[in-house]
Amino acid sequence: MAERRVWPMIVALLALGVLLLPLSQSLFGLRLTYTVRVVALGGSLLGALSGAVGCFAVLRRESLLGDALSHAALPGVAIGFLLAGRQLGALLVGAGIASWLGLRLVAAILRTTRIKQDAALGIVLVSFFAAGIALLTYIQSLPEASQAGLDSFIFGQAAAIIESDIALLGGVGLAVTLVLALLWKEFKLITFDADFASAGGLRGGLIDALLSTLIVVTIVLGLQLAGVILMVGMLIAPAIAARQWTHSLEQMVVLAAALGAFAGGSGAVISALDSDIPTGPMIIVVAFALVALSITLAPGRGVLWRQLRQRENRRNFRSRRLEPGA
Amino acid sequence: MPEPGELALAIDDLTVAYDQKPAIWDIDLEVPQGALMAIVGPNGAGKSTLIKAALNLIPRAAGSALFHGKPYEAARHLVGYVPQRGSVDWDFPTSVLDVVTMGLYGKLGWLRRPGRRERAKALAALEQVGLLDYAGRQISQLSGGQQQRTFLARALVQDAQIYFMDEPFAAVDATTEAAIVNILRELNKRGRTVLVVHHDLQTVPEYFDWLTLLNVEVVASGPTCRVFTLDNLQKTYGGRVTSLHGGQVLAAGG
Asked: Which of B81, B152, B158 to mutate to test the interface with A (most CBs of A within 10 A)?
C-alpha cells in the first residue's frame, strides 16, 4: 500500500542532504575541499546502495547474517594484502571471497549439524574476525607494511575514499539497481515466501544465491568507509527506519536508499571535520538517529502515534460508557 | 489399478529423515486425477513433511514423486501450493492484491512484470474467496481467516492441475471454512486434484472423497468410504480414537 507522504519525504531528505554541505561550511567552518566533496559523494552512494539492498536483508530476518558476513571479510582483506600488496581491487576481492566463504560455512553448519542459527552465526563471526585481527597484527609487524593503514578496515575511514572509488561505487550501484529492477518480483516473492516461490515455479535456489550475492557485494564495498564492525548498521538502519513510514516494498526500498544516502553522506562529512573521528561510528550514529526519529514519529507504527491513538480510544470509550447514566 | 497416465500423483518409496529418525518412511501413494483428498494423522505424523518432500522443498532420503507422470522439475506449472499460514511474516510491507498476484509470477517467467491482465486475474480470485473489498489492504491488517483466504486466492490464480494445501482449515472462522469448502468443491468439479492436510476428523467424510491416513508410514489410502473406518483410525492414532459420529464410521467401514 503506497503512502502519499513518502515521496515528498524523499525529496526533502535529498534536498536537506545537498544543503548540508554549504550549511556546515558557514556554521562549522567546514572547508569544502575537493576531498570533502568526494567523501560526501562516496558516503551517499554507499548509503543509498546499502539502504536499498539492506531492505531485503532485514525483511528476510538476516540482519545478523549481514553482521557475520562483514566481520568474516576481515581475514580476506589481510590475505589480499599479503598476496597483492595495497591494491584496493585485491583487498576487496579478498574480502568478498572471505565473506562468501563465511556465508557458505553458516549454511553448511546449519545443514550438517544440530547447531542453531544464532550459534552458527556466532561461530563464523568470531572465528573469521579473530583470524583477521591476528593476520592484521602480523602485517603491522612487517617493516614495509606499517604504513598500509589496513586497520582502517576495522572502523572505517572516510579519507580512504578517492575519486576512483566513486567510479567503482557508482558503477556497482548502477549494476545493483539494474538487477533489483529486473528481478524485482523474484526478490519480493523469495523474501516474503520462499517455499511458495520454489513450489510455484521460480528457481528459488538461484534467486536466493543472487540476493545473497548482492548483500555480500554491498558489504564488501562498504568496508573501507564503514569498517567491518559497523557495516551492518549501514545495511539495516535505513531499512528499519524506512519500514516505519510505508507499507509498500517499492516505497520502502526507495526511502531506505534516500535515508542511507543522507546518513552515509553526512556521517562521512562530519568525520572528515576532524581526522580523529572514525567514519563508521559517525555514519551509524546519524543512521540510528534517523531510526529513533522514525520509530517515535512515524504515523501508524510510531510509538508516539500509537500512544495518542490509545489515549483517544480510552477517552471515546469512557464517554460512551457515561452516556446512558448522563 | 489405474494407468500411470490417469494418476495425478504417484509417490514411490518416499522417505525423509530429520536427525536419523524418519519423519516419513517408505511412502507409496497413488492419487487419481480429480480426487479431493485429505491427509490425516496425529501431530508429528509427517503430513506437512510429505507435501514438502513431494514438492522438493526439503531434501529426500529416498524415493520419487511423479505429477501427471512427470518429475517435479517438468511439472512445476501443474502444481499449486498453499503453505501453512504461519510460515510467512504477515507484517511484510505489501497489499492483499499484491500477494495474490504472486501466484502468477511463476508463469510470467523471468524479467516480465505483472500487468493489467494479471491484476484482473488476481481480482477475480479475490472475489471468489470473498475478499474483493480487501484488495488494497495492507496484509498485516487481515484476520487469520482472511490471511488464509488470501493464500487460497493466490493458489487459485496459479490455475494448477494438482493442489497441495497445508492445513488451510487450521484456526479459521466459519466464513472462511465455508469459503474454503466451496472452493474445494469448485476445483473438484473442474477435474482438479486437491490434497489437503487436515485435522478435523469429524468433517472428513463430508468434505473429502479420498483419504490418506498417515503416521510416519501410510496406514491406509483410498476412497473415504473404504478408508474412514474405526479400525484404520485406531491404527493411525494408536487407539486414541474410540468412536466418531456414533455408528456412522463403523457402518461405513462394515
From this structure: B81
Closest CA to A179 of A49, A58, A73, A89: A49
Residue A167 belongs to domain with CATH number: 1.10.3470.10
A201 shares contact with chain B (CB less than 8 Å): yes
Strands (E), chain A: none
Q: Kindly report the pTM of this predicted structure.
A: 0.87
Tell me which residue of B19, B50, B20 sits closest to B37, measured CA to CA.
Answer: B50
Spatial separation of the C-alpha atoms in residues B194 and B118, rounded to whole Å: 24
A48 burial (CB, 10 Å; 0-12 / 13-18 / 19+) is buried
Give the count of domains, chain A. Answer: 1
Residue of B nearest to A55 (CA): B93
Look up the domain containing A137 and give its range: 3-322
Q: In whole angstroms, give the CA distance from residue B83 to residue B67.
A: 18
Reported as a single tens digit per residue, the pLDDT across A242-281 is: 999 999 999 999 999 999 999 998 888 888 777 677 788 8
Amino acid at B46: G
Surface of A (120-179) touching B: CB under 8 A: none
A197 touches chain B (CB under 8 A): yes
Closest residue in A to B54 (Cα) is A199
Rounded distance between C-alpha atoms, residue A292 and residue B36, angstroms? 52
Higher pLDDT, A142 or A75: A75
- ipTM confidence: 0.87
B95: helix, coil or strand? strand
